[in-house]
Design brief:
about 180 residues; NADase_transloc; 3 helices; signal; mainly beta; 4-stranded antiparallel β-sheet; 7-stranded antiparallel β-sheet; about 40% strand; Jelly Rolls; 11 strands; NAD glycohydrolase translocation F5/8 type C domain-containing protein
């Protein structure tokens, strides 16, 4: 997805959100003025590697968000929010820790998730157990100010129980410019 890279500003600010957990902010330059990722938990740093919400904004695939609770992370979530309602047809997920085949298979990946929006859409989706991006389409064009992605089930990792998502974003540009 080339368009995501051009729309995100590179500057990131790690902040504590008052009601949504740990948050990271970015400026959306073309379509949305303010944009924020909040997560329910974060895996503690492992050496030089960190797993916070700021990693969801990194387009390189070399970083990831991993939940930080004991077990598989069922019920943990990612919340994406922005200031004003904006029309969306879909969102995109890069499931698991995709920096390498080994990292992908060693860690848990999301199998099923609940998607909730500020405009009342609630749906369950099943993700494929594969590296790369996956598009999640809404049943109709929605105009939310936030989307919540909650882990319901996982594909088990060979080595770790940490469930990871490398990137996730609402595809504002698909709605604006049509399918890619």
């Amino acid at each position: 997805m080339k368009t995501r890279i051009t729309a995100l500003a590179i500057s990131l600010i790690l902040a504590a959100g008052p009601s949504w957990g740990k948050c990271s902010e970015a400026i959306y330059t073309e379509l949305v003025d303010g944009y924020r990722f909040c997560v329910s938990s974060v895996l503690s740093p492992q050496g030089k590697f960190t797993y916070g919400p700021e990693n969801l904004l990194n387009p390189t695939g070399q970083t990831t968000w991993c939940e930080g609770v004991p077990g598989d992370g069922i019920g943990e979530y990612i919340l994406m929010e922005w200031g004003n309602p904006y029309a969306l047809k879909s969102m995109v997920v890069e499931n698991g820790y995709v920096k390498s085949e080994k990292a992908f298979l060693d860690n848990n990946r999301v199998k099923r998730a609940r998607i909730e929006t500020s405009c009342g859409v609630v749906m369950e989706v099943q993700l494929k157990d594969q590296r790369g991006t996956q598009r999640i389409s809404f049943p109709y064009v929605v105009k939310p100010t936030w989307i919540k992605f909650t882990i319901l089930d996982v594909y088990r990792g060979r080595k770790y129980k940490d469930t990871c998502v490398s990137s996730i974003w609402p595809d504002f540009e698909e709605t604006r410019w049509g399918s890619h």
